[in-house]
Amino acid sequence: MIGSINGFSKLNKEEKINWIAKTYLNNQEAVVDLIKQYWNSDEELQKLHDEFIENTITNFYLPLGIAPNFLINDTWYTIPMVIEESSVVAAASKAAKFWADRGGFKASILNTEKIGQVHFIYKGEKQKLEQFIQSIQGVFLTDTFSITQNMQKRGGGILSVTLRDKTDAIPNYYQLHVTFETKDSMGANFINSCLEQMATTLKREALQYAAFTEDEKAIDVVMSILSNYVPNCVVRAEVSCPVEELKSSEIQDPVLFAEKFVQAVRIAEIEPFRAVTHNKGVMNGVDAVVLATGNDFRAIEAGVHAYASRNGQYSSLSHASIEAGIFRFWIDLPLAVGTVGGLTSLHPMVKIALQMLQKPSATQLMQIIAVAGLAQNFAAVKSLTTTGIQQGHMKMHLMNILNQFKATDEERVKVVTHFEKNVVSHSAVVELLETLRK
Ligand code: HMG
């Protein structure tokens, strides 16, 4: 069958590319050459990237940009951002400068607890199960000691093991709900290893528990896995200043600006259609730093959006207020990130990004990421409630349009000069290019 193949994983890289070229790309040599052009000439570096994932055929570049001038808890940071979308880095940088002149960002850790669960089926008396779980608390800890001993030396480990009854939703379904402290690691492997050992312990001890009937002894573990929902691993970032200090070359009427800004955030708090886009603006900043520092953006995304829905309706992640003449804008974000393990010591650009951030601990990185999200959100909502988003966004997007139309250096200079005084739109750029090319 065309398009299906057995043993693809066993082919070498050249063979994989050849199969793709033959099957999907009409054997076009130019396309194959382009795929190979993205290989790194340093073979060792290329091998490192090849082995990050499976069936690698080439690299897929994203730009690494820099947002300077972030004053966070009185320390200056230059934030690395990996993102494909124009105007995000500029917006973050602009918001950083704006708030640096007004005392900077304040960030604090609210808590750092991670969660994992063993999901299991138990057919029997609930009270007996409760007593059983209570009786083997110590065994869970001794059985996992070989996994947790190093983490314990660093001040982390298993914090609690509780039984959760979910039989209302699914017959006979219970959970071991386990909480962890994983210090500077994101902790996924650590947590999953602990949970799998705990599942083994659970089944083994149940078979030996004298009070159980034969049915009760036959605990069936469905799965053991960490949760990417971390509502107790939360960082707060905020900015504040007297309303009149919001005045700038762009904000002539700070009272009006502050009121409209708070109104826009309020709309995102109560209206899910707006909240999703509002939070997308937050994640522009968050994901870019998460990626640059080698963390798992899918885990962060999933957890953050679950958190945004925690009260039963999807809502804004950020909040704003004016109280006693003080404008305040803040965000609480659940962020399970690491500065050791995973890609952090493998990807050369991640190592540089972490160095640039002054080798942060996981909690410092949580604060930096939350600030990047808040800054991004501030820039977007400021634009939305003043000039509109398109003016700044399209100004930054201009280069992409020029690249799309393969503009020459001479054309670029002319187009950029023209749009210094005119609003950029796709059609206006195309029109101007056509005029220049006549
Ligand atoms: P501007 O006022 O035209 O910029 O803003 P400027 O040329 O006057 O420069 C001021 C500062 O902005 C610079 O200071 C930089 O910090 C930064 P300087 O470096 O000169 O000391 N800046 C730049 N940094 C790097 N490269 C550049 C650059 N240009 C300015 N080329 C800007 C232009 C785009 C910053 C502004 O209009 C803005 O913040 N817009 C918001 C853009 C935004 O939010 N983009 C995200 C994509 S849209 C989206 O996905 C989310 C959204 O839907 C979310 C939501 O709905 O809430 C909007």
TrEMBL record:
It is an enzyme of class 1 (oxidoreductase). Its EC number is 1.1.1.88. It catalyses: (R)-mevalonate + 2 NAD(+) + CoA = (3S)-3-hydroxy-3-methylglutaryl-CoA + 2 NADH + 2 H(+). GO terms for molecular function: hydroxymethylglutaryl-CoA reductase (NADH) activity; hydroxymethylglutaryl-CoA reductase (NADPH) activity. It comes from the Bacteria. Keywords: NAD, Oxidoreductase. Coiled coil: none annotated. GO terms for biological process: coenzyme A metabolic process. Pathway: Metabolic intermediate metabolism; (R)-mevalonate degradation; (S)-3-hydroxy-3-methylglutaryl-CoA from (R)-mevalonate: step 1/1. Belongs to the HMG-CoA reductase family. PANTHER family: 3-HYDROXY-3-METHYLGLUTARYL-COENZYME A REDUCTASE (PTHR10572). This is 3-hydroxy-3-methylglutaryl coenzyme A reductase. It comes from Myroides odoratus.
